[in-house]
Amino acid sequence: xxxxxxxxxxxxxxxxxxxxxxxxxxxxxxxxxxxxxxxxxxxxxxxxxxxxxxxxxxxxxxxxxxxxxxxxxxxxxxxxxxxxxxxxxxxxxxxxxxxxxxxxxxxxxxxxxxxxxxxxxxxxxxxxxxxxxxxxxxxxxxxxxxxxxxxxxxxxxxxxxxxxxxxxxxxxxxxxxxxxxxxxxxxxxxxxxxxxxxxxxxxxxxxxxxxxxxxxxxxxxxxxxxxxxxxxxxxxxxxxxxxxxxxxxxxxxxxxxxxxxxxxxxxxxxxxxxxxxx
Length: 278
Hints:
This protein has 278 residues and is α+β, with helices and mostly antiparallel strands. Helices cover 43% and strands 17% of the residues. Strand 3 and strand 4 (53-57) form a beta hairpin.
């Protein structure tokens, strides 16, 4: 089976996804890679071998392989299956503390948030299909959101600190409400913590300020609207949550090196090029 997502990762992507259907597509030998893999089974049944342990997963279940773990998968003879793989480098995750809960191979059965997990996976596929190489920033946001949702579920060997869980709740809220007015004081009050404490812990866990993080979500959504709709720039600015188009233009350019109009026209920004595996 061709590994389309793996090919994208070999070309320097931080996040890549692929949906595949197949029958009797079994790996002949174990493999490993230097990035995370989330294997999401949508139909059929699959067996996964990793670290001297055999895992069997059913539809709507996921298995996570950390970087460097040798593994392979196979199915029952003649049984069709459909799966999505999500590959991501550790540095693609916007707040590193979440990765502590995914340090070992583990199976997640996200019954409580199944539809929301599926929604994020579908958005990852859509962004990659529509924006191509230009969709990496939004895909980093989406894979972070996916981990937040999975972190809430029962998981084998999950290790999440209480404070990390609180910040995860804040980030989940921001992903759901980024288009609304957001200010530090109101946000802190919603989660019953002081603005100072929220600002400090949010920065420590994510490396960004609250407003900087929100602006990243807004610009990621704006990029999709610029590509997929003919809405005027001013309307897109309002849809994603900016109070005025001047501020939107300034933030958009600072994050993409392009104006919204240039981005819509398909101009290529000047970006740092990293070697594969860096």
